[in-house]
Amino acid sequence: MNWYIVQAYSGFEKKVVESIKDTLNKSKLGENLGEILVPTQEVTEVKKGKRTKKQKKYFPGYILAQLEMSKEVYHAIKNIQKVSGFLGSGDKPTPISDQEIQRILGSVSESAINQKSGISFEIGEKVKVCDGPFASFNGLVEEIDGISEETLDDFITQAKNLVAEKPAKDDLSEIVGIGEVFTKALYKHGIHTFEHFGNISTEERERLAEEIEGIGEDSMNDFIAQSKKLAKKKK
């Protein structure tokens, strides 16, 4: 068996894993599936004084699957809802070597060890100093230093491209009126195809609306409707 990378809609990785197992078993192709993983790491976040631990996906929208690939297996997985396809060219998924898989998993483990607590503050938020010469003093957050979420997303995107080939992309600028800023935001959030955008999840839609100021609900609905039509034309 070889390792392959399956592209799934962001936020639906775990559901897609279960669907792959179920679909292959029902199709009597269960023996063609070995391990299947969604790489995650545990991070600690502190927001407004509350510390919580959560599992964070290391490569959102990507699933590692060990498969005995065949046409039947390829089409069975490709036709699962919330699956965009495989990394590779056309209908020929590119296998990933065991060394590359170990390098990916090793990076996840190393990141988990070195992961700093995700401390989330907002400008203007009231805080209390707990240690040092100013312990027990209250203050306001005026400035936040450190790596921005945009920069971190950029690093993750570069890492994905180093691990495997770039995923197949539709030219989302074909959507009338969408604009360059919106198009870049879609790619940034792992939305690369008309089919994906046409079936965007509520969670993804909310994230886009927060990031892109001034995008109205009517415009969003229009872009999604256009995407569905363009996706149908491709089939």
Description:
- The model is unreliable at 111-119 and 162-166 (pLDDT under 50).
- The chain has a four-stranded antiparallel beta sheet, covered by helices on one side.
- Helix content is 41%, strand content 22%.
- It has helices at 13-26, 71-78, 98-114, 149-163, 179-188, 194-198, 202-211, 217-234; strands spanning 2-8, 33-37, 40-47, 50-57, 62-67, 83-86, 88-89, 92-93, 118-120, 126-128, 138-140.
- It is built from eight helices and eleven strands.
- A hairpin with a 2-residue loop joins strand 3 (40-47) and strand 4 (50-57).
List keywords for this structure.
235 residues; alpha+beta; four-stranded antiparallel beta sheet; three-stranded mixed beta sheet; globular
Based on Cα principal axes, name the global outline: globular
Strand content: 15-25%
State the helicity in percent bands: 40-55%
User: Helical segment tally?
Assistant: 8
Strand order of the largest sheet: 2-5-1-6
Summarize model confidence as the mean pLDDT: 75
Gyration radius over CA: 21 Å
Alpha-carbon distance between the termini? 30 Å
Order of helices and strands: EHEEEEHEEEHEEEHHHHH
Task: Provide a brief overview of the structure.
With 235 residues, the chain is of the alpha+beta class. It contains 8 helices and 11 strands.
Blueprint of the fold:
Layout: E1 2-8, H1 13-26, E2 33-37, E3 40-47, E4 50-57, E5 62-67, H2 71-78, E6 83-86, E7 88-89, E8 92-93, H3 98-114, E9 118-120, E10 126-128, E11 138-140, H4 149-163, H5 179-188, H6 194-198, H7 202-211, H8 217-234
Parallel strand pairs: 3-9
Antiparallel strand pairs: 1-5, 1-6, 2-5, 3-4, 7-8, 10-11
